[in-house]
Amino acid sequence: MSNQVKEMAVRLKPLLNEGDVGCKWESSLDKIFSPGNYVVEIDHTGSNVGLPVKFCGAEHYIVGNLVVTDSGTAGPKQHERVIGQSLTFTARDSKATKVYTRTYANGIWGEWHSLIEAGKFDKITTTDKLISTVAAISNDIDTLKGAGDGSIAAVISAAMEKGRVLAKRDLFIAAGALYNDTDAAIERTSPWGESVQHLAGRYYLNGLGDITEEQMLAIYNRGYFNDNDISPFGYSGSGSASNIRTNLMRSGMWNGSLAGYLCISNYAIEVLNLHIMPMGTSPDTCNIKLTNAESVFSTAPKLRVIDTRCLISAAWKPSSFTGCVNLTEIRITVLGSSLDLKSCSKISKASVLYMIQNAVPKNAITITLHADAYARLESDVDIVAALEAQPLVSLVSA
Questions:
Q1: 3-class SS at 143?
Q2: Which one of 98, 104, 244, 388 counts the least CB within 10 Å of its CB?
Q3: What does the pLDDT look like over 239-275, one tens digit per residue?
């Protein structure tokens, strides 16, 4: 064997050949451009032979598989030619078998990149570490594969976005929401006893079973409200923090007082939750006193339910429920003065029955109902019986 051949550290031969037939020699993996599948035998003596690992300090040999791919334009000059190498071998120092890839473009070899090995992410314990790790992988793949629809980088980007969604989902669930990760709707029962379809891929909160990811994020970002907050969900509009379909529970006293104008001129809210944040064991109901009932719920056209777990008392005003055209459920207790519900054509029997049974009038008072609601309830047996038991309370039609 000539001295020149002896100096060649890398011997390669096509996988289809047998014995040493077709065996070639090169001084480095950097010199191998011919496309094909090869068995490579490498003398690792400390010199640079194009390997993706550093010299471990002890002379040894490496046997691995090398796949060379080629892409270029037609013609003898082969403009913009790109070569790829994929190398599989077992590293002596790490005692791990890995797959490495790199690309030759613009006259130079790029860096070697290792494909993911089993168990690599077992020690990742936080969302931030996961996102940073995946971002690093994405950057490496961008170098090799580029970007764009259908690329590996795009897939990694989608995976990162999915990770962010899942991280937020954990927060939403901790705040009290439920998520349906099945392919079918789940039947649930709302706090006021209504059967609700919790749709697949949607959130359930406060009796709403079709809350989207974007809507849930808005609800979460608005956050809890405090007993002393004035108009915590009032005046919603485009971009408003109160432009939400429902809200998270409040943070305050079980049986506390709430400031006024709770959701005045809110054109988005459907269910108003007045219950306290979960704190281990919690009572099913709580008593809430409104310190100011002036326009407290007025001009909230989508408002359908005011937390039926909370028994609400106030010195009610004619403006308290103005414009609440969809209000169906509310539990008003210790009613001591006349109440105007003329805007609320959909008010439920349960709501009217409760306010009659729990009224404490000292003088004659009236509950003014929308004409449709009055026609629906005036002759109801339970309503009539409740009115007979409360001679100072009467229903009138608007």
A1: helix
A2: 388
A3: 777 899 999 998 888 888 998 899 999 999 999 999 8
